[in-house]
Amino acid sequence: MLKKKPRYITTTLPYVNASPHMGHALEFVQADTLARYWRLLGHEVFFNMGVDEHGQKIARKADESGVSRQDYVDKYAAEFNTLKEALNLSYDSFIRTTYPFHIIAVQHIWKLWEATGDVYKKKYKGLYCVGCESFKTDSDLVDGKCLDHKVEPEEIEEENYFFKLSNYQEYLEQYLSQESVIVPDFRRLEALNFVKNGLEDLSISREVKRMDWGVPVPGDKSQVVYVWFDALVNYISCLGWPEDKGGNFNKFWESNQTLQLAGKDQIRFQSIIWQAMLKSAGISATDTVFYHGFINSGGHKMSKSLGNVIDPYALVERYGTDGTRYIMLRHAHPTDDSDLTWEKMDEYFTANLVNGLGNLTARIMKMSETHLDHPIEKPLVNNFDDDYQNHLDTFNFQSVTDCVWRKVQELDEKITKTEPFRLVKTDKEAAVGIIKELAHDLYLIGKMLCPIMPETSIKIIEAVLANSKPANIFTRLPE
Fold it and tell me: Looking at the whole model, is its pTM more than 0.85?
């Protein structure tokens, strides 16, 4: 297949102040599904993930734990990186914001902002939420507390560097007026309305005497770069910017399509602040940012601070890698919040995987193995059907998995209606014809599962081509 235009995809960087939770895994699996899909279509893909390792929250956690900051972030970075195997992620880059090349990139872009005249220093007093690593206004608070972390922000007064976000009001309004830059569109309108209400300049550094765990500000050892401005630069530092010796930055960011995935609470940072940062540095804007909803647990947003997280490793232990991917792609709404409990997930796994796809595969391949003299001819599959592609092209992961399970249902109904296992006793030729059709369509299901459930896809395809009933694809849950 001829290579199509290169595509770039990145997740946000989780904060390594605790272990990964299901909300992180959702974004990773969504991104991986798209990366695998694009590769199947013939695109060259650069898929970036990583972790955010600076900031006051991490410094405090490390100090409380009695270990060095670097040892602390090393421990949690490793937990996120091992999700690659647990969730079968196919990323090309795993960046850590403590990497020397990233620090060089942050300091370089800072100098570009200075050259543009977008950085100045002033004294500032405000309310600061350590959990969010950001300043809050009264309108951001409920009963004087941060909405996400349920604590009162600290009042801080210090001298910081500021970024002239207000210089980019008109530019951001024009950027956000393009329908393609944010999916779903109601999030784009949310961002656009925020910008139209007026932009204030942003504090982009912290005094070392208060917070010393960060990238040093070029030319001022008394300050470190604000963690958010540090972390956002990873999207281009991972490509080798600014030197771009390997040409990846020009190939994947400047010359072709870029896609960022983020949670719905990231709009201000990803589609407003980051885009102004890029514009100030003379770098192309992100083509599209897709914002997913949250996975709630027991009616509350899943949060490390609230202690109601679901461990993705526990999911994999119970449902397997592909079972976990299936649950997150089909039973978590792509853009709205979803509430998942262990009881619900057990039901989805048993009904749709064990008794659904797994049972269907076993039935068809048992008939094929018994009644066909040789495997069916390998089907030619050059393209996916239009509905399937349209749903993936618009990031509707729930609908694309629904497409697959409609095929599963259709094959179940065909077996019930035609009963080839009975027909073979009276009209073997007709029965064999039906079994070949069933094996052919099962192969197509296997191909459709390639980006969604890659291990299951391989098992189904190999079973059909070997004309052999596989071992149980999904294991029943213990009683």
Answer: yes
